[in-house]
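REQUEST FORM: STRUCTURE PREDICTION
Request ID: SP-0412
Submitted by: Lab K.M.
Chain count: 1
Length (residues): 354
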Amino acid sequence: MTLESGQGPIDGAHYLEATPENVLWGRLPCGGTPAALTVASGATVTFDTVSHEGILEDQGSDPVEFFGRYGVGADDVLSDARLLAKTPHLRDAGRDGPHVVSAPVHVRGAEPGDLLRVDVLGLHRRADYGLVSSRHGRGALPEHFALDGPEFTFCSVEDGAGVIRYGTDRAARFPLRPFLGIMGVATDTAEPAHSVPPGRHGGNIDVKHLGTGATVYLPVQTEGAGFHTGDPHYAQGNGEVALTAFEAPLRATFRLTVLKGARARAAAATLTEPFGETDRHWIPLGLHEDLNLAMRAAVRSALAFLTDRFGMESHAAYAYLSAAADFEVSQVVDQVQGVHCLIRKADFASGDSR
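STATUS: Completed
RESULT:
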């Protein structure tokens, strides 16, 4: 099964294909990056996303040949992945990151200080296979893996589950939970940012809970917000310890809404960091090069949310986080490491937020 550009369900009012004109490769949009689309606040946009796995230089820049080694037929390799692999001028391999990222979407009325609400409305798999890779000494155990070059593990989708085969006839089967690793806004910088480290702009936050039905809040840094997405995953364990997770292409539909003033603070209580939400949890994030400091940042973000949103005294909020909240390591492989906090909404069902 492949979901080619223009085929199958396109759920948004606007549609952005992954053509060479509509993507950045290895860099994220900044304020001066031309927009691929301009939409009104509240508009729905469908993006075709392409995984970088299979098209990179250390894989031969030929996804047909690369995935053919694992038994994938040429007709099952997406046309947009093939085309991007043939446009190396899009990426400086010595300077840029690996990710294929959409060109920015300009949302009318968005200004610095606002919040962009990004609702993940739907995710469709575009292929039935993908890859986990370990390379560059960037995993959690670089002294043990990929010592002589990249190591690639092929993953398939079978009966709705992810499958990694090993030995002669054995396999590990695991649930699929698609999400976009990169969701962000344009940075207020003179040059586009590297695609690997996440930050206040969002970007490569790699939080596995932010799939269909989730919401991400991003502090707007430039006029029009410049929303972008990429780094599609079919599944990821917290930590993403091997460097990548199950990387494979998705078609994603989002609703992009500008929140201003009181509406922004009511949504996320703070404009300083990206913030997530699902039907069950609020998800403050902490980001830092040092994992211990990322943990501290996540605790501070969670405290700010509880004290501002619910009027909790700080000592009570601190006690609640220790007694009831879960702090999880999002990823330890993206230069800037991530910790996210899961605060159950049910715990505050009887409380009145400010």
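NOTES: The helical segments are 63-68, 79-85, 261-268, 291-310, 314-324.
Reviewed by: T.R.
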